[in-house]
Amino acid sequence: MPTLQSIAPLSIEHIADKVYAGERLTAEEGLWLFHYPCLPELAHLANVVRERLHPATNHIVTYIVGRNINYTNVCWVRCKFCAFYRVPGHEEGYVLTKEQIFEKIQQMVDLGGIEILMQGGLNPKLKLEWYEDLLASIKARFGAYGVIIHAFSPAELIYIAKISKISLAELFQRLKAAGLDSVPGGGAEILTDRVREIIAPYKDTADEWINCMREAHKAGLRTTATMMYGSVETYEDRIEHLLRVRELQDETGGFTAFIPWSFQPEGTELPMERASAFDYLRTVAVSRLMLDNVPHMQASWVTQGPKIAQIALRYGLNDFGSTMMEENVVSAAGCVFTLPIEEIERLIRAAGYEPMRRTTQYQLLPLGVPEGSPLLANRA
User: Binding site residues for S-adenosyl-L-methionine, as ranges?
Assistant: First the structure.
């Protein structure tokens, strides 16, 4: 990776010319942008990319009515940045029953919701058959409502395959058959092993995360990608992360969206200062400029708060994310924001855009069709 000292003299005019021409930015240019002081200029260039990717809908900001479900907090990996997990045998460890999960999904459906984002820890007691039964049971009970199952981060999937002694290809085949619709991009943190060995030494490597997403895409499952910045990484690490996502997208085209979010240090084993809103806006803009092949970028209002997320809509974002309804991982680190549907739509309109609901695959929902309608059952 380049360093700032190794970069030949650049200018914002040079980079702007490339952006206007639709040319891909290099690692050196991305790194230079992380040091460029004028945020409004970055915002302008990021929005050029946003509008190029969405020429017919650049007046729209989408969101999805969904719910986060953390089915277990039991995890043996002990990531230093996580305040949510409980080690196996801990008195505060839990695994939700199917009935508890059904109740949460029913509450979402009653509010017109369509997506459950289901993630948990690496729980050694939960085998592949448990996951298959859960997915099939959810589809049997809520399939008529068009509920989309967007579930299990690469860390979970890699672990399930390992303890089941099967390949990732077979794992995705079985989970997809049971009802899995798509895969969230959690656990990416920073895709350099130097950083991962510091903050999560027992977790999958950067190559393993990338390969898991590659196998998901091969199986016909679309995924998102995330970046948790603001811990021990450098700007060079962030650029390497973005390049790895961009390279896999060139190969598979399987990423629907990218979501950068800042590390929340409270209650974790990494006592650091929380990244600033300035850093968030810069990271959003540089990510949009570098990821010219990932169609959507999503706000992280749960970590930044609604007002900063609203401002970030002018820094290249085109999606406000999920209503979530419930969030346990980030809130365990002391960061709690909740937003009702009406407030999400108000924030989008106040920023000068038209709010529009979507599915997990970013299909805009037809006007006049309630989001939980069986008409949408095959639109995941």
Answer: 81, 189
CA dist 223 → 217, 276, 308 (Å):
7, 28, 25
d(CA 236, CA 4): 9
Distance CA 46, CA 44 (A): 5
CB contact at 8 A, 353 and 313: yes
Which residue's structure tokens are 């950068």?
260
**Confidence class for position 326, pLDDT limits 50, 70, 90:** low
Cα–Cα distance for residue pair 236/202, rounded to 1 Å: 23
The residue-averaged pLDDT of 9-19 equals 95
Q: 127: closest CA among 164, 97, 91?
A: 164
Q: Pick out the residues of the known binding site.
A: 75, 79, 81-82, 153, 189, 300, 322
As a whole number of angstroms, the distance between CA 280 and CA 312 comes to: 8
Report how far apart, in Å, the C-alpha atoms of 90 and of each of 73, 76, 98, 156, 202 are.
10, 11, 21, 19, 19
H-only helix segments in 152-272: 154-164, 168-178, 193-199, 206-218, 235-252
Q: What is the pLDDT of residues 221-259, one digit of tens each?
A: 999 999 999 989 999 999 999 999 999 999 999 999 999
Q: What is the pLDDT of residue 334?
A: 38
pTM of the model: 0.89
Q: Helix (H, G, I), strand (E, B), or coil: what is residue 277?
A: helix
Phi, psi angles (nearest 5°) of residue 364: -70, 135
- Structural domains in the chain, CATH included, are 51-376 (3.20.20.70)
61 half-sphere exposure, CB direction, 13 A CA radius? 30
Binding-site residue ranges for (3R)-3-methyl-D-ornithine = 153, 300, 322
Q: Tell me the per-residue pLDDT of 151-187, one tens digit each, with 9 for 90 and over.
A: 999 999 999 999 999 999 999 999 999 999 999 998 8
Q: How far apart are the C-alpha atoms of 359 and 365, rounded to whole Å?
A: 7
**Known binding site for [4Fe-4S] cluster: residues?**
75, 79, 82
